[in-house]
């Protein structure tokens, strides 16, 4: 036994030596960064964000709807979504196919060079240039050309009258000098962006964080928060825990993860309504989903309040149309009940000839009421919504079969199978809706996947786009929403609320109805105006 | 010995090149057979609002419509020149992505190996020493059970206990984001759970091996002979018993690199550890072929290197192999 | 390892592992019988019963959309076993063909096939599996292919080594000199000897296949996410773990852990009792 004990002791010593010796060689890899700052002081503010931007170059698609802290656009948005001039001196009138902006004087880029109309013209031209492969080019196709007749004037020539042109002018302006003549994909600018915004770029550690510091000579006044760190952490649970641990000063979270912060001292939870909706896109040329009675009955049978309560844990509201309540464009007449009305749904189906058949599935002229509903693999929210739709449909005798697929597998099937999709922009009703419902876009990729072709709807969309009188536009879009509802082109399920948790008390926080893509800054777009409440 | 080693290494390397060629060709063919559209991956969220005509233009710009053989040779040529391509999901050069993340994986995996070695040696010896006692049963039993438990499940249980209920340790991530540099203490705190889980999951075979090996070795002729010759216990243990007992272990360790990679993939994913292993999952979810191919190649190289290392160690440690030559 | 005076294998398990056998039988029974009595509608949710802790009506609780965890775990095990079986069959088939060709033909073909085996073995299984499913639509077929392509090498090795042994036996020489063609020798003489090895390899591959499928599903690369797969369930459960829902992750994991443990205990017992040479072969 003594022998064995001695061996054990030797081994134990060996083990300890091994741990110490080899641990010494486990050095932490250094990551590029700047001098450390004191966490928790008022001067540094750390944001925990879910998705890192692919690029910091507005021409390649960085925050085209404003909300970027590095860049300014010609205009910007107030909290009530009205436009205010930014780099432009005032909002121009929009009439006809020419729009003229006069630039604000004395604006400089972060590197000290002055802003001129050449930079504005270059920015828009670069977006439109096919060689640059900009992913947002499609949003600006109404622009024919951009001129800079003198250093303070920019003239847009449009291909056709385009009412939303001012909304599109939120695009961040880049300095022509740093980008012209280069291949945009490889430009040094992409890793060291220079803009005119309230924050200037310090560093970007991909996969980890972006560090910004206040632009002391900002034309709108220097921000109170001197240093901003945008940290990226894709996993929601991890972000929630890092927030709880004090690592972040503010973060965005899904509703379930934010629930634990509700009543904590020193933290405020903001639930910001959004125009971000989820709904069922129906292929209108397919046998079962092409029948309006099926679509309407399904809409009646859905328990939207349970979806909001269980799947969104209360952070959302039922949706009945593509234009969100809370925006000026919403038509209040387009509405519905959040709880299901299965009796009425059943009656509708009976009247349309869908009689109860075997296995609880309705049949009409030999065709069973059955279709496939797809959801994108990896999206658990859409998966849960699809499950809820299938469950509710079963109760009225409609058999919905689910398929979780990748987007590439979904694309070719959209003409035959239904899909849980999501969109939503609060800025202008022309955004996205034109491409969604106009017959000229029917079946083009992800535009109008349902093949909706109605000439009078086309007319409404075209009129809304070209008309500049706000009252007429409002009427047009009200009529559009009513028509979409009557035809039940989509069955809208829910509008999401975007949930944020903020540490400390601040003034200048201005929740506004948000868009579908989180990249537009959300609640943090006004960070330059946040000041600690006394 | 150096000649034998040199010969073996050269032989091995000669085989590695065609091996890698076959692996890359296989990957490329699979990627081409895939129905997934790289342009859609590149556009990401924007794909839903970009017209098909613009997508077609991007495709033409990238040369995706060229013949297959040409694309493969171009890709291979770039690879040999050191250009690993651009990651379609992270929109940065693949070499950059790997460069940033490899260090974290090596750190976590390296420390996990150290912990695993030390703990297995200690526990295995303890179990061999106190054979058939409650300690032995506990250690052996846990080792067997551990082999059956999926590592992502044990990771979640560990997170539940230590991060949710006890709140002693963070459930994931790398560091505190507020400071600009990496603070070792902070990384250490975030590292404890992932390293522990990875080490624990890889350790079963080693614990059992050490245990069995020691039990057997101590009964052997040469040990009894050494003791009979009056050698000190320490000499007996270290120079004779341990060396012989641990010999196959070094070889097996190098051969366990594939399991280590697998374990790293799952542990890094559960703990949101920003290493190359979790990057492979992200690349897979985004069908990002350039990044995924590079990472697969990297892992293959690691496996080959591990095997080479194991055989080298074997040659060095075992005089019989030296004399008789390497097969 | 040399054998010494006291030599031989250390006997750690000599008694028949009754507990393992009972567990396995119970689980198999559950997998076969439960679907006959309680049919699971894979698409039915009950949003009003979301995240309920374990109780009498729901022994394993409910998940975040109100589905009973116990019923789904049983179905999940069934799917995993079926996928595991299918994958094991496919991989053993490929492996047998390759091993037979290599062992029987010898020479260049043998060396070529062994190089290919080495090549496949050089890529870590899960990573290779991830690579395959990443590039194709998530589906049962993709998962089965992924498992098969990463595990056929073991069967190939076993079959090849058995064939090499058999080739050396006198009855083969007798058959050749008797005028039998090569294929006939393979069929009539080799296969009967190989069948038990092949079957054992297939059975032992099932836990690996199950593990591989659940790992892929956990990562979101396996079976479609709304289906009851143990990996999917743990993936869903992980999301609500920090919110306090431990039952949705724990119980599905248990259903992977228990059968694997049981099978490995039984395999260990079988191994210890029978041919020691198998011990190295079956280090799967």
From TrEMBL, chain B:
Coarse class of the protein's main subcellular location = membrane
Pfam entry (one): BPD_transp_1
Q: Which GO terms describe its biological process?
A: transmembrane transport
The subcellular location is: Cell membrane
Give the top-rank taxon of the lineage listed in the UniProt record for this protein: Bacteria
Annotated GO CC locations: plasma membrane
User: Can you tell me where the transmembrane regions are?
Assistant: 102-129, 150-168, 188-210, 249-271, 291-310
Task: Check the record and name the InterPro entries matching this protein.
Answer: BPD_transp_1_N, MetI-like, MetI-like_sf
Give the UniProt keywords, A-Z: Cell membrane, Membrane, Transmembrane, Transmembrane helix, Transport
Domain ABC transmembrane type-1: where? 102-310
Provide the membrane topology annotation.
Answer: Multi-pass membrane protein
PANTHER family found in the cross-reference section = ABC TRANSPORTER PERMEASE PROTEIN (PTHR43163:SF9), DIPEPTIDE TRANSPORT SYSTEM PERMEASE PROTEIN DPPB-RELATED (PTHR43163)
Family recorded in the similarity comment:
Belongs to the binding-protein-dependent transport system permease family.
Its recorded name reads ABC transporter permease
